[in-house]
Queue: 2 jobs
Job 1
Amino acid sequence: MSESTGSAAERIEWTTHCMPVLASVTDELRDAKPFSGARIGICLHVEPKTAVLLSSLKDLGAEVVTTGNFGTTQDDVVAELNARGHRVLGSRTDNAATHLQNKRQVLATQPHLLLDNGAELYSELEHAADSPLIGGTEETTSGADRLRAAPPLGIPILVINDSPLKRIFENEIGVGQSVLSTFQRVTNSTPAGKEVVVAGYGWCGRGIASAFRAAGARVSILEVDPVTAFDAAVHGSAVRAREDAIALGQIFITATGDRNVLPVEAIAQMRPGALLANAGHFGVEIDLVGLTNATRQSVVSPSIERFTFPTGHSGFVLAGGEMLNLAGGAGNPIEPMDMGLTLQLLCLKEVWQNSSQLASGAQPVPESINRVLAERMLAEMAPHLRAPREGSEPHS
Ligand code: NAI
């Protein structure tokens, strides 16, 4: 079968059809134009799903300027969006300096709201008080951790990742399934019967563990938090001592948000032919600098690189150690992103309309938004599962 990809316009069209929740919320708000007068600065993976969100925000009256996260931008989607009158900066091959320049260009437009992924824009802000910025959202775990560790910005930032809906549907189900499917596609191999080590048993890690176990792998867990390690153990994973996991593993997947989880010294102790991949937000979980210095490299395919130690034994890194499901595949499945990006839209609207009533600092998505969206998702996906409302007919 051909591997060819349709045009960005076709992919955006397909994705739009698969995002009914965002579409229906956008339709309901279209006439009210709730973002009239709002300038929104965005740093988010640029791909067809985010393209649908950008169109919704524009349709609802916002002026939007966007740049992608490092290493995951789909260049043809950027070109298509710009041709449609959006303002999107950056390309997949940008180096760190160009990426920084793009982020600064977004901030230079003096946005009122930021939608950030990894606190890439927030960490470039010097003083929110000197700008028209009134608040925004943060998409992911790693970004929320960064915001909470940094000096306060004095504005409300709703953390999408703190919504139970996002954790369950995107991090656990979406990341689990898309990391597995991307692994299978880029390697053309199955994890069945193999020893797979997942580092980090948080929301993403447990989804990855469960997807790989369902595909026939023996899964073991590396986890620094003892309570979480216990959770993994009682859900059927082998929680191994680090040395044992390193010696036994054939496939390693990091999902911790931490850096240097697999240092070069550990990689040197792995079985020959070990496959290493990362699902965490930043491409720093596998020690690529150490690995590059200690080995000879060769390219197997666009998503597989071989690292050969002077001893002659090799390991393989998938998708350059960047997020496997995004850098090597099409990202999270569309439905969890339909939900997650609708959360983004509703939270940005909440900040734009009610920022003075919100506390400042990183904070969870308001419970009322979670409940409304959960109802809509249930109505969309499984109307027969909804509890009968008072006065409605009982299920037969
Ligand atoms: P989480 O906070 O629920 O879980 C992280 C787990 O890793 C925790 O249990 C923690 O104890 C453990 N951990 C931390 N350092 C460790 C180390 N050195 N060794 C072993 N375990 C360690 O976070 P979540 O939501 O699972 O996210 C994990 C990462 O994945 C974050 O960087 C997040 O931004 C990213 N992410 C990636 C997505 C993707 O599409 N690939 C989507 C959503 C999040």
Job 2
Amino acid sequence: MIIVLRPEATPAVADEILARISSLGLKPLHMPGSERVVLGALGDERVLAQLHLESHPMVEEVKPILAPYKLVSREVHPHDTVVQIGHVPIGGQRFAVIAGPCAVESRAQMKNTAQIVKDAGAVGLRAGAFKPRTSPYAFQGLGMKGLEILRDVGAELSMPVVTEVLEAHDVDAVVQHAACLQIGARNMQNFALLKAVGQTRTPVILKRGMAARVEDLLLAAEYILAEGNDQVILCERGIRTFETCTRNTLDLNAVPYMKQKTHLPVVVDPSHGTGIRDLVIPMAKAAAACGADGILVEVHEDPKVAWSDGAQSLDPAGFRRFMKELAPVVRAVGREMP
Ligand code: PEP
Ligand code: MN
């Protein structure tokens, strides 16, 4: 429920109403605006009726939050949230490119790839140390060793690092080594993991599940915000459809839809979204054109020998072309890019 106070309501009035909301076991929200203070109450709305706030002399309006997700919705938070990954803001004027290999394979591979993507203009470094592979016999990632490599390389090049956390019991270790956690498509509805990352204050890139509706993604994000972590970036990475010529179907409808319904930044992963290297640049341009705040893209120093996702990884020259071709599209929609 949203409770709009009258312009003349004092801070003491807001405090009194918030205390009454808490006393009913509901979660109180305080959202001061430039003209009016807006309060919120999350939880069982039938309970709220007991407070009879409509008849409070300092309450202008009491209205339900119509969306099933609350904290992520623009109804509750009208202005864009800018999530800070290390020194890199995501969701503001600047369009962000976060690039790197699918997986950490070795220190030399990570250093070389990080230098290549940094020189071409990437602002963040991605790579997986814990890999969620379809086959149990496929490379599962270097684990802790991979995290250490990532942390060192990120620090050397002063690039904030994004890496996937697969299990709740690894959250603390990953937080120690990375500027941003990634929840992968296969874990989008792992509610225990969502709650665990919600208890940190580390930013999270939450990827859309391959069979998840946009509303499911937004409700998954709500789990993280409900635990107190509002540093969430949503990622469209393609969904399973009847189409088989691409690995996934990149649902770009989701980008402007989510930008309208939520205040959270939205990034797009055209690598997993297509599975095909030659489609990565055109779909990244399309993502920028429809309002994405950034791109997550796989780059390998030599994709033909990559231990995972080589077919969708750009090579160094391909990544330089990616940056060159993306920049004019980003600028055409009024955003900035190095
Ligand atoms: C990845 O980013 O390497 C990855 C495993 O992504 P997704 O969870 O989207 O498949
Ligand atoms: Mn991958």
